[in-house]
Amino acid sequence: MRQAKARGPYAKTPARREEIVRAARDSFAERGYTKASLRDIAERAGITHAGLLHHFRNKDELLAEVLADRDSEEWQQGLDDVDSPDQLEPYLTQLIRHHQRAPELMRLWIELAAAASRPDHPAHTYFVERYERSRAQFVDGFPDEKARARLREGVGPENAAVLFQAVLNGLQLQWILDQDLDIVGPVTDFVRLLFERDDAEDVG
């Protein structure tokens, strides 16, 4: 049976939430979290302040949704663009440069991740599961001995996954503190340190 279409004021709720999240992302990126207001976000989304509060109770909840939405987009992009170690370096270069175009969102993500380290923080479970999922995705990229052989001798996929997250997040934190710092070079060097060259690259 086909699912009946939603009726009434909730018919476009998912689409409306997406519009609000996009508006909030723009407002946070332009004004920063402190100066961004729910009224400005509502205006950008084309709804009333009361209408926004129907979907999100406060600005903290909206920030968490903005960052989760960004994570979801990047997660899917990674699945689409990277299916071998050779594709990891250009993907990370593109990802970092994309983040650098919205430094305020990068700063907010770092701040929320640190705050969520407290077990009683509302976003604690989300960040724990996010890192678990990211590590699992990395490890799944080495399904057999041939793939594992691309890693440097003595480095296992599980440890490589932890190092990968530590380097990526740590470099972005350093860049937020000093935006003249080159972090694309170090992250690409790290990928080259982590993986052996594919012998097929030297053929032909």
From TrEMBL:
The keyword Repressor is annotated on this UniProt entry? yes
Fetch the InterPro entries from UniProt.
BetI_C, Homeodomain-like_sf, HTH-type_TetR-like_transc_reg, HTH_TetR, Tet_transcr_reg_TetR-rel_C_sf
- Could you tell me which residue ranges the HTH tetR-type domain spans? 14-74
Keywords (A to Z) from UniProt: DNA-binding, Repressor, Transcription, Transcription regulation
Pfam families in alphabetical order: TetR_C_6, TetR_N
The record's Gene3D superfamilies line, in alphabetical order, gives: Tetracycline Repressor, domain 2
Q: Which residues bind DNA?
A: 37-56
* PROSITE patterns tied to this protein: HTH_TETR_2
SUPFAM superfamilies, per this entry? Homeodomain-like (SSF46689), Tetracyclin repressor-like, C-terminal domain (SSF48498)
Q: Which residues cross the membrane?
A: none
Q: What is this protein called?
A: TetR/AcrR family transcriptional regulator
- Which classification does the entry list for the species? Bacteria, Bacillati, Actinomycetota, Actinomycetes, Kitasatosporales
